[in-house]
Amino acid sequence: MSSKVFKGRVVSAGQISAPALVSHQGLNTLASFQNALQFGDKSAKCGDQNNKDLFNKPMAGKALCLPQTIGSTTGGLVLYCACSMHRQPACMLFSEPIDSLAAAGAVLADVWLDDVTMPVVDSLGQEFLDYVKDGMDIAVKEDGFIEVFDGKPE
After folding, report:
1. What are phi and psi of 124, to 5 degrees?
2. Which of 20, 74, 70, 68 is nearest to 48 (CA)?
3. Angstrom distances, CA of residue 44 to CA of 3, 48, 107, 144
4. pTM, whole model, 2 decimals?
5. H or E element that contains 6
6. Phi, psi torsion values for 103, nearest 5 degrees
7. Burial grade of 75 (CB within 10 A; 0-12, 13-18, 19 or more)
8. What are phi and psi of 109, to 5 degrees?
9. Alpha carbons within 13 A on the beta-carbon side of 23
10. Which of 8, 26, 44, 150 could disulfide-link to 87, CB 3.0 to 4.6 Å?
11. Which residues pair with 4 in a beta bridge?
12. CB-based contact 110:63 (threshold 8 Å)
């Protein structure tokens, strides 16, 4: 199995391994997590019908790879609430610099919730988003290094 390593900026530190879930467009946090937060969907299936990459796919426990978040000013609170309900992605990996709302939600969850981990790394670059595909195994390191495996371990 081969892998490729990318380096980004750590927003919320942590180490985790998870399968990739990739969006090539911005993530509307409110629309995407609404079913998980309001209606008890523990797998956090994406409810944003405008996001063709993610719609109806479970986001909880996945390495969510995306360019940025978009939409409502509630974005940070939505991420914090998803974490507090244990319905968050395993990590969030941004190809672009993170917006202040998503950063606020990730940092608040990291600081205020003792039993939740959701590492967040941004500024990974367009090459990262072009390379990673749904289902690829991703390992997040504490120092902002992301290793993407293009096959299954032997």
Report:
1. -80, -15
2. 70
3. 28, 11, 20, 26
4. 0.96
5. strand 3-7
6. -60, -40
7. buried
8. -60, -40
9. 30
10. 44
11. 148
12. no
